[in-house]
Amino acid sequence: MDYFFIGEAELVTAFQFVGVSGKAVDTAAEARSIFKQLTEGLVPELGFAKPTIEPCKVLLITEEVAEWLGDDLVQWQLSGQFPLIVELPGLQGPLAGHKTLMESIREAIGISI
Question: Long-range contact list for 28-32, CB < 8 A, 24+ apart?
Answer without folding.
Answer: 28/68, 28/69, 31/6, 31/61, 31/65, 31/68, 31/69, 32/68, 32/69, 32/72
